Amino acid sequence: MGKFLESVDIKALRFAIGFPLLLATGFAVCAVLLRPDLPDPLAVRWDDGGGTAFAPFPVYVGVGSAMIVVAGWLVLLQAAPLSRPTVMRRIMMGAGLTVSLFVTSVLAAGLVGQAGITDARDSEVDLIVLAMGSGAALSLGVIIGFVFKADQQWTPEDDRALQQALELELDPELATDSIRLWVHARSSVFVMIGVASLFPASLISIAVPWLGALLVAAAIIGAAFLFARVTADRSGLRVFVAGILRVVDVPAEAISAAAPADVRAADYGGWGYRHHGGTAAVLVSSGPAVVVRKTDGHRLAVSGGNSDSAARLAEVLTRVAARARREGRPPSPGDGGA
Predict the structure, then answer these.
(1) CB within 8 A of 20, min separation 6: which ones?
(2) Where are the domains of the chain?
(3) Reported pTM
(4) Could you say which DSSP state residue 185 is in?
């Protein structure tokens, strides 16, 4: 999969797949809106005297939508491979757009030409719709062929990737001084929250629907606060309740020690974020955690998921704290130059 993604233009591929699908969807929606004014069945072939071949409305719309998608994919996908010459990719992108819009114009002209007619044998293709649609298809195809950037572009994501690669090259230990993990309560806790909220909410909603919905929303918010995102790197320790609300931000130089421990949430005031006196805690359950001692004498307990991840988190915090103290220490007299 990785080799395939590296060999194609992802933006062009998304457009090549999505545009015909959206175009076919728009055609189908417009056809449904026009259906009350159309005869049944619809003409699908015409001569000088009117319709000569007919098909039911679902067949006309379904087959027509499929033709739009297939015709668009056959041409537009030729613009995605990076191995193709730039000029060819531009031509294929413009031609694909033209083909998709032209097929749509032909199908739309057939529908509009039958609107307001009770017998499809008396219908004819609407030449105005066909001409306008074909002209728009050709002109838009030419425009997209010129504006399509077939050359690979350097993006901000590439800048960030390059910066990270340079930092890692200059400091190979950087990768080991970072950890990110999600911690959450046991599944039985979420089942308990669901039972304790959904059943009463279903009863309350019979009399007061908005109150039942409010109870369910409160339960969802409460359950979200039993998730936490923990990040530790050389800048320090950060904990985000529900993944977005930052409640802990301890700089690395403020950490005195960190050790894994098996804690009881009740000893720290319960689940969630707690702060009492000189002790703070972000615990989503009892069990493996990391207890951090700060240089100001305060303590902090953070859930560590399982024993392995808690030990890994404590190891990273100990290492980055030692590094921060070492880098922040003033040089000794013996460190000076000759």
Answers:
(1) 68, 69, 70, 71, 72, 73, 76, 100
(2) 2-147, 170-328
(3) 0.49
(4) -
